[in-house]
Batch of 3 targets.
Target 1
Amino acid sequence: MEKITNFILDHYSNATNGSETTEMYLTFLEKEYNCDLKKILFATSLCCDDINISTNFRKVLTRPFAMGGLGGLPFSGFTGMVAYGHHIPDDGDAFIFYGPHIGITDDGVLGKMRRPGQQHLTNSCGALMLALERLKETNEIYIPSSHEFDYQQTLLERTMMPFKQQILAAELPGKEITEVAYQCIDKQIHYLIGKASAEFTCSRVFLLGAVIINTSPEYADYVDIRNFEMIDLQSLETMKSESILANEAFMNL
Ligand SMILES: [Zn+2]
């Protein structure tokens, strides 16, 4: 086993090779759930970091609806979820892959990585590691000079703020903030699907939640799968769907 694999398994004992896992879940959808992969509309709620294209399903499933922004939070929000629900192919299914990402160096240090074409290390997830630095500041919340030009980072930091003590008290705060980010993304995705459930033109939404572990270019990326779930929209009564206002533009998203 490669040394990097041991380092990854030390931190994430259930992590698996990214591309093998992609293959496994696609086969699973096809064989166990009789999905027609050509009629699946794929969506992601992943960080916009360029490194994340290596592990997701874009190689196999086309047209991802990109819900995610910095840190992987579903920044496209309720409007984005409604639009996504409207775009599912006839007789098709919805499939959303979501979660944060964290780098690991060749020496097993979490929160950093060596990227393609570079020799030096950079943070990964940069947005989450920046949020962590700001949580450590003893001063009150960082306020960007121009909020509208950095609103995703501002909202990401605000979302992490209630978990400040938990994150800073952890043995590995960089790993912990990634855990918190996963929980927040998972919760928001479920909430948005519940709110927008009446807008989906299909009856099934498949969810795959994971922490993506980015490695140096010569190694495979890994994923630590946290959730695989099929939501049957017809029986979804846990939350009242928010009826869309009788607004032509909204109905045609
Ligand atoms: Zn990131």
Note: Residues 47, 49, 71, 101, 125-127 surround zinc ion (CB under 6 Å).
Target 2
Amino acid sequence: MIDLFFATSPNVYKVSIALEEMELPHRLVPVDLSQGQHHDPAKLGGGVTGKVPVIVDHSPADGQGPYTVVESGAILQYLGEKTGRFLPSTMRQRSDVMQWLFWQVGGIGPIGGQTWHFRMFAPKIAPHFDNSYAMSRYDTMFAKLWRTMDDRLADRAYLCGDYSIADMATFPWVAYLEPQDGIDAYPNVRRWRDAIAARPAVRAAYAKGEAIDTGYERNEKGVSLFPWEGLMQHVIAT
Ligand SMILES: N[C@@H](CCC(=O)N[C@@H](CS)C(=O)NCC(=O)O)C(=O)O
């Protein structure tokens, strides 16, 4: 059994997708980020980075008792090695997957997060600041990452040929946020996104996640602050 310390966010959905795809028995343990629960390692399975996702594997391969893993990229690699699935064993193919996994965790994830922040939150949180430079910088960087991805997908179905943990890492970010010029400017990404959204394991991951209210995405009046659930549903429903 694996516990996934869970909030409805793109970084966490990467892992719930992997757990579903790899058919690993797991439980989602809600973490209410709005209450700061992620700052308490006791509420995070012993995770000390103050971030979700975190997993605790109660049956690790070494048989030496529960094992805690933090950082979404490291978790995906751990699960790929545990199961031998979605992470190739040959040198070049494996390195390809790791390159694109790192591209996600160091690129489209954090840049997507900042793009979202400056587009959606900064104007509300700090309306007295001129955020136009930051907004323009992150929009440009985000679109460049999408262009890289569209080029990469021009002659392959998935980022590294076969569907892999690199695709699982990238999908949640592409599903909830598009560049300013819209997804039609990136037809290969659209095809890739639609193919992944149709996978039963991906649908199961979102259905289970959205049945859990972690409080993260709602303000004190119960109003949704983070519309990624709705956007994901849109992607998955189409
Ligand atoms: N590099 C980390 C980033 C994880 C991350 O930023 N998680 C967010 C939710 S998507 C979080 O826990 N935010 C809470 C905070 O930073 O206070 C990973 O890939 O796992």
Note: Residues 9-11, 33, 38, 50-53, 71-73, 105 surround glutathione (CB under 6 Å).
Target 3
Amino acid sequence: MTETPTEAPFYNPLQDGYDADPYTHQSEMRELAPVQQTLVGPWALFRHRDVFELLRDPKLSVSDDSVAPENLETERYQKFEEMFADSDYESRQSMLSTDPPDHTRLRRLVSKAFTPRSIEQLRPSIQALVDEALDTMEAEGVTDVIEHLAFPLPFDVITEMLGMPEADQHKIRDWSEALVKTLDPIITDEEIEAAFHAGVNMNTHIEQVIEWKRSNPGDDLLTAMIEAEEDGDRLSSRELRDQVSLLFVAGHETTVNLIGTGLYELLRHPDQLALLADDPSLDANMVDELLRFVAPVQFSRRITTSDHTIDGQVITAGSFVLACLASANRDPELWGPTADELDITRDGAGQHVSFGSGAHYCLGASLAKLEAELAIGSFVRRFPTASIAGDPEWNGRINLRGLSKLPVEVAP
Ligand code: HEM
């Protein structure tokens, strides 16, 4: 009897249960439709080899200028157009959405502050912030990891690095949350509107901060960037604003997910937690394995600049392609039969693509790793018997997936 061919399934992050477990569905995509055009327009890649090649291919673009007009005719872009037409809000010029040669210039201007050696100097101040957070958690007994550790730590560290003034954390957190929603492949009209208003508010806030910093310079990254802008041809005012905004948002919206979801997974794998609590030499590998296992940024995006063939499928010039980092990180073709298991002693855990790859490889990778190493390592050694004390809440994002609440019970 001949089998009736079944149609390849489509990627659907709106299905029930996806927020708690996106991996089962992604694994199905990797097996049955690893290179596909999604129902909302962009192409999506799920295998490690395709993702890795795409991210490192210099022929691809990250700039919206490369998108073919017909690919901007979706509801999503029509709504963006409508919002932009009614305002003087300009599109962003951050290095994340800029191609060479501008990308190279913008990245070079800030990269010195993010080298492993510069970041290592922050160790004592990050440890002090972690210890203070753990003191508060210990005093509470039943407490929330996100509220006390996973969110404030990266937020305070990037605020301090940039030399930002004290500001209303809640307001900035709300804007930033609304803004990063635009990184999701599916977004509602209301979310687009909220992101637009948040973008306007964030721009105004950053512009005010830059003005304040001009008369209050310090030994910080923002002062160094302002000097580059005042030098004239190296950085325009708008570029300055957009790099500060990117560093600020990327500096905390991603690491919160690594620390929060990472600790959640360790608490759900008590054997791994016990191993780590007993052996600090595992800290660095633990961070790489958690990055592989939870992928705090689930997708990167590229735009084809010429017809591009992957696996016999032709992706025409000017198309969006989403590289599923989370799925690549669990591809058995690279990781073998234990791809879906958490193993903090895994050899080669650092081959994950959670920080991307190629020219746009995460500038903050060393910083994020150090924050996670100190936060998670210190937490498990101070509270080796910690346990989950209620239902965790997911943040509802498809791309920057993480927890907005993780109740735990801690005792020294
Ligand atoms: C666990 C935490 C983090 C993860 C998972 C992460 C992930 C990523 C990924 C996947 C990219 C590449 C996007 C692409 O290929 O299109 C990226 C780029 C970037 N990240 Fe991170 N990131 C993290 C933390 C940070 C931190 C702490 C900072 C800064 C303070 C930062 C700053 C940046 C910047 C500036 C870029 C753009 C680089 C470029 O375009 O050349 N990230 N990040």
Note: The chain has a mean pLDDT of 92.
